[in-house]
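Subject: sequence -> structure tokens, single chain

Hey, anyone have a minute? Need the predicted structure for the following. Not urgent.
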Amino acid sequence: ELVAHARGRRVLHLGCTNWPYTAESDRAGTRLHRHLAEAAGELWGLDGDGEGLAALRELGFDHLWLGDLEDLAAAEPLGGRAADDDEALGPFDVVVAGEVLEHLGRPAALLEGLRSLLAPGGEVVLAGDSYSDAYDHAVRLQKEQGLTFVHPFDDPDVIAGQGTIAMEILR
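Reply:
Had a minute. Here:
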């Protein structure tokens, strides 16, 4: 469903690497960035993980930017500053953020930063912005890849870790 929004359009894919599983998911045919590339008129990727972006470059992708999703204005092209307007970030017809918001400490900062990257009439397509979405995705991955599911609320070690984090936040 995310790919349908990309057809023939200029697209920015946020959180595009899924590092360290970048190459593995590409081989398995589950890499969203690959599917977006096949549909989009032009595809750009922005991620905070330099190793993941380097892996995407090795897979043949270009227009890759490194940056903090909560500070989009500071993002730079992989390998250094853009020399001309052809490599400028934006404007985009579509910004895709699949399974991204739940990983951010300040998701509102991302959404605010997207305003300057959207073309007039552009759209932001979000997926995975709730616990239920994340849970459904985790269960699907467990089944598809034969993984072990560690429930975030029923495992004593996870509960202890969450308590530790809560105490750090309150300090």
